[in-house]
């Protein structure tokens, strides 16, 4: 049960981070509209802002793919699962400190912060459960046995 919860938290993290892929592929006006829907003020058309957005979105997507790999092959990556949870918790602290400092409105600040803090703590707490995930629990395709 705990091993499945660990996998669920890793999958949730993969989705939460990798959803940033939309910031890599969508045109600038669509991305700006989405950011404004999340509470951003008017964002000027600036090539450097466009570039930095794509850079950050690409990095976040990479983090999501990393969490997906942890969810698919937890035994293979068991040695880094705890660190991944701790880093996500640390990101929650960064979001909390700067969200409060900047006086951000609750959405999406609270959701991002709480997600990172709770899911990061959960992954870190359950990190040793990766060793308990059996073949039948794996998300990876099963290999055909030679008979």
Topology (SSEs and partners):
Elements: H1 2-18, H2 21-25, H3 28-37, H4 47-72, H5 78-102, H6 106-125
Helix pairs in contact: 1-4, 1-6, 5-6
Percent in strands: under 5%
Distance between the termini: 32 Å
* Strand count: 0
Low-confidence segments: none
Largest sheet, strands/sense/barrel: none
Task: Please write the string of helix (H) and strand (E) elements.
Answer: HHHHHH
Overall average pLDDT: 92
SS field, number of helical segments? 6
Can you tell me the overall shape?
globular
Structural class: mainly alpha
Global Rg: 18 Å
Give the helix level as a range of percent. Answer: over 70%
How many structural units, i.e. domains? 1
Report what the structure shows.
With 147 residues, this protein is mainly alpha-helical. The chain has one domain. The chain is built from six helices and no strands. The chain starts with a helix and ends in a 22-residue tail after the last helix. The model has no long low-confidence stretch (mean pLDDT 92).
């Amino acid at each position: 049960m705990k091993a499945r919860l660990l996998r669920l938290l890793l999958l949730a993290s993969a989705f939460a981070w990798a959803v940033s892929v939309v910031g890599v592929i969508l045109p600038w006006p669509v991305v700006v509209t989405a950011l404004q829907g999340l509470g951003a003020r008017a964002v000027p058309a600036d090539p450097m802002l466009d570039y930095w957005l794509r850079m950050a979105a690409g990095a976040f997507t990479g983090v999501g793919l990393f969490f997906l790999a942890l969810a698919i092959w937890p035994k293979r990556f068991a040695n880094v699962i705890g660190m991944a949870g701790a880093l996500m918790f640390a990101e929650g602290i960064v979001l909390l400190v700067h969200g409060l400092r900047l006086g951000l409105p609750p959405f999406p600040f609270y959701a991002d912060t709480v997600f990172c803090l709770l899911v990061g703590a959960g992954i870190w707490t359950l990190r040793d459960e990766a060793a308990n995930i059996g073949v039948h629990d794996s998300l990876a395709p099963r290999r055909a046995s030679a008979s």
